[in-house]
Amino acid sequence: MRPACAVAGTVLEEIANFIRPGMTTRQIDNFAAERIKAHGARSAFLGYRKYPCHTCLSVNEEVVHGLATERELKFGDIVSVDVGVTYKGFIGDTARTVSVGGCSVKAQRLLDVTEQSLYLGIAQAKPGNRVLDISQAVQRYVEANGYSVVREFVGHGVGRTVHEEPQVPNFDEGKKNSPKLKPGMTIAIEPMVNAGRMEVKILKDGWTVVTQDASLSAHFEHTVLITDGEPEIMTWAKKPSASKVA
Ligand code: MF3
Ligand code: CO
Ligand code: CO
Fold first, then answer.
1. How many degrees, rounded to 5, is the angle at CA 180 between CA 176 and CA 181?
2. For the residues of 103-141, what is the DSSP string, one character each?
3. What was the pLDDT predicted at 53?
4. What residues are in contact with ligand 1 under a 6 Å CB criterion?
5. Nearest C-alpha to atom 8 of ligand 1 is from which residue?
6. Distance from Cα 220 to the centre of ligand 1, integer Å
7. pLDDT at 162 > cutoff 80
8. So what's the pLDDT on residue 241?
9. Fold of domain 2-240
10. 201 pLDDT tier (thresholds 50, 70, 90)
């Protein structure tokens, strides 16, 4: 899992540094395909349930599973980039929402709160805790900041396939016994946070999930290993990013 996750983290970093105003999400997905290949990996999303792209690129009110299109990104947009790669039989899954050249203070606050909710969730990923401890930590922080947590999509175990047990919701489902976390488990924790209401819908393309009220949405994700002690975030970038100057 470690090498696969390192590739995923590195590719995500490379994509984040590549994005500029005026680019289309198609160009970004093409770049991602190139980088994934350069690392000797394959997209774990392409072909998964017939998903047609290498990455998920979700712009502004798009929540997750945005498809690569000829849509041009403009200054101030936010785009959620989700990367899943298969490397030597294992999968790393990681996502981040970035601004295109910069964004409003309001949008940046949504990104900051969503990212922080991920790290608060990760802090609960310890043996002795349950999945519910992660869910509650994320939900509490998001709602205390006036945002809402998406219900229809959740984090998950990850290993030789993208989506494994257990499910890792970003909210309290009200179930009595959520799974216990044990050393050796690898899980993807991935809060999807809406600036407005929690409800989402799927567009006619069959994939793109958007907020019903058209409010902005952000998504951050890491693949995390449960250890005997502190959680190990496995999807960091392997090496310092390339220069941001084009
Ligand atoms: N991004 C999702 C996740 O993190 C999986 C996307 S599957 C795809 O779990 F087929 F939509 F790409
Ligand atoms: Co993902
Ligand atoms: Co995931």
1. 145
2. --HHHHHHHHHHHHHHHHHHHT-STT-BHHHHHHHHHHH
3. 98
4. 45, 48-49, 51, 56, 64-65, 82, 93, 156, 162, 188, 190, 221
5. 45
6. 13
7. yes
8. 56
9. Creatine Amidinohydrolase (3.90.230)
10. very high
Name the pairing type of β-strands 192-194 and 155-157: unpaired
Tell me how far the alpha carbon of residue 103 lies from the centroid of ligand 1, in angstroms: 25
Centre of ligand 2 from the C-alpha of residue 109, in Å: 22
Structure-model confidence comparison of residues 63 and 245, the more confident one: 63
Average pLDDT over residues 144-173: 98
Q: Which of 16, 4, 155, 19 is closest to 84 using CA atoms? A: 4
* Rounded average pLDDT over 5-15: 98
What pLDDT score was predicted for residue 176? Answer: 86
Query: Which of 50, 51, 79 has most ligand 1 atoms within 8 Å of CB, for mutation?
Result: 51
Q: For residue 238, what pLDDT band results from cuts at 50, 70 and 90?
A: confident
Task: Name the DSSP letter for residue 7.
Answer: H
Coil, strand, or helix at residue 156?
A: strand
Nearest CA owner, ligand 1 atom 11: 65
Q: Which residues pair with 115 in a beta bridge?
A: none
**Mean pLDDT of all residues in 98-124:** 98
Q: Which ligand is the nearest neighbour of the Cα of 48?
A: 1
Three-state secondary-structure class, residue 143: helix
Which of 15, 58, 64 to mutate for ligand 1's pocket (most ligand atoms within 8 Å of CB)? 64
| pLDDT, tens digit (0-9, with 9 covering 90-100), for 65-86 | 999 999 999 999 999 999 999 9
Strand-pairing partners, residue 188, are: 156, 223
Closest ligand 1 atom, CA of 48?
10
Distance 69 CA to ligand 2 centre (A): 19
